[in-house]
Amino acid sequence: MAKDILELLDHVKWTSSRQVHLVGISMGGMIAQELALLEPERIASLTLVSTAAELISTVGYLAHLRERINILIPKSIDKQLAEIKTRVSSTWLAAPDSDGGFPTNGDRFAAQELKKRMDTKGFTRTGFILQAIAAAYHKKTAKQIQELAERVGRERIQVMHGTIDNLITFPHAEILVRSLGGEEAGIKKYVFEGKGHYLPLEERKEFKRLVERMIEKTEAL
């Protein structure tokens, strides 16, 4: 998938040095790592959100195995919605809809997920399973992540993660930041207390501010 992105960048002539500001969320963050390793000199800034260099068990082997199997078990739409709502904070779900039109954020979130699941051509079960497999097999060693940081430039990299993320748990962010060289080496780390997996939803304004600030900073380098 990283190579697909490179083909697209080449097609639109975004081929200059330090031209691409890359933001990767969840599995997108894994793809962003692959892309940054393939063409580090083209990366102007790299924002890794709710992602990992490698998925590991942070809850014990049996609990981890049960979670992974549970992802693949077919469920009723009500159970699917209830499960996916656990990936964001209850306070955000209960708050008034940020965009208007729905009583709460939770109502909008459920409607969007329901619409997605009804699109059986765009969001197939096969595609979902393949995505889960791709994420499970993504692995970047500490050496590879260190190489990424050195070649992209640590001053160009930031990591964001929510402390109650139950899809890619918070310890993954700590491992990623450490492998990149740590805050003392210039990596920016942003911890969102009490927030879940979908930070651009829960922390829209702050997320936007941090990405824009990184872009402005690296454009001046």
Sheet/helix structural class? alpha/beta
Number of helices: 11
Q: Helix proportion of residues, in percent?
A: 40-55%
Which strand order do you get reading across the main beta sheet? Answer: 1-2-3-4
Low-confidence stretches: none
- What does the largest sheet look like? 4 strands, parallel
Mean pLDDT: 91
Could you tell me the number of beta strands? Answer: 4
What is the chains' assembly state?
Answer: single chain
- Kindly estimate the percentage of residues that lie in beta strands according to DSSP: 5-15%
Which shape, going by the Cα principal axes? globular
Give helix and strand order, one letter per element, not per position: HEHEHHHHHHEHEHH
From the alpha-carbon coordinates, what is the Rg to the nearest angstrom?
Answer: 18 Å
Distance between the termini: 29 Å
